[in-house]
Request: fold
Amino acid sequence: MARDDHGPTTHDVRIGKDLLELVSSAMYVEPLTAYREYLQNAADAIDDARRRGMLAADEPGRVEVTLDQRERVVRIRDNGTAIPRADVLDRLLALGGSGKRGTEARGFRGVGRLAALGYAQYLTFRTRAQDEDLVTEVTWDARRLRAALADPDAGDLASVVAHVVDVRVLPAADSPPRFFEVEIGKIVRQRGDRLLDPVAVHAYLSQVAPLPFAPQFHHGAAIVEALRAVGPLAELQVTIDGGEPITRPHRDAIDLGASTTDIHELTLLELPGMDGGLAAVGWFAHHDYRGAIPVGALAKGVRVRAGNIQVGDHTILEQIFPEARFNAWTVGEVHILDRRIVPNGRRDEFEANTHYANLVNQLSPIGRDIARRCRTSSTQRSKLREFESAGREAAERLAVIGQGAISDGTQAAEMGRVFQSVARMRKVLDAEALEEGRRATLENEVAAVEAELARVGGGVEADPLDMVPKGERATYRKVFELIYECSANRVAAKALVDRMIQRLAE
Reply:
């Protein structure tokens, strides 16, 4: 067989139309990730506008999200540089050919703009650049695209794109002097309708977008100072339907459902790269570590951000913990600075390389420290429950002794059990897991029990059965003792004996 020694030419290479499906509906399986892609592009455009002097230092980069549930349309508009009309087709029809690669921009693969195409009937990009008096619209028709993908004779990728994209130039009218807008139109109905649910969109953006911390998170100022020391933070002012700007979900108090836990300590750390410079900056907010943080708190787990936009979800760094479950007890973030640590195409993980492996290895000690804190907290809670149980039992028995309705022999036995309860409380005080501040409080509680034990040990001032003939008192005491012996609830038994004594006194 003859051997063809020359390599393929550009005429031999064919890019098939199915690539469009891969970079739209097949790549983005969670509808809300479309917001991340458009916020990422908006952040890049706003950064560019600042560099060019289009945005003043005190002027916020704004992203306005509008949810039209009746028309089933979402609009996302920013005040970044926009795209000049002469560059619109070159920039918006290029697939996998972004001019951002090799720059400081967050996105660089040139496919994220189609993230919502699989969830709508059309996708429109609308732009007006500075000093232009026209608005340019580029619309991808998703219905035509699906028909073309199903048609074996539809042609190659370029032919399909030309068939499904429409371009219009419109008068600027009352549009802003500079803007870029994405319109996701006629959104298909899905379970949960998450793309149009303002609560779901707000929760998602509060976790993922480059937003400021809320005033209710007092550690936020220290975190922002540490991050700004190594580079611009590029926070955006993002609103939904004209509401108040969204903030990050972190608060001083974490809602655990049945209770809350307060953040009382902050760890800031710098993680060096493999050959100098910083790979990342991280922060971890320490609380009481009472258990897993609910998903609804929107802050559980170690999050990772590149360009101040979250990559993946709260499980992305579970591997830094000795046991993955402790990640759910944690509040913290790692901000990537080394551009060799690269998010993958879906931004749900990072590309595997030595720089990312080095980062994970450096985070392992903090994972072990948090695991230690979790175990210590669990041990302390167990000890405190033991202390509370012993203290409650001592108080109940002291109340029975102080009632004076039982015999001297039974009273002596009850006092012996109180001594045992106090010994159990003292044993808890000797545990290393206890914090010193808590230990002092418990010492006072033990001292109060011991003082009450000394008081009742001196005998009751008056016999509550004085009104009963002497010959019958022993019988009543026996009955009362049987009530205490047979009752599973000592407090309820004492209340019953109190009522009986009161009845005898009438």
Q: What stands out?
A: The chain has three domains: 19-196, 253-351, 375-505. Residues 354-403 form the longest helix (50 residues).
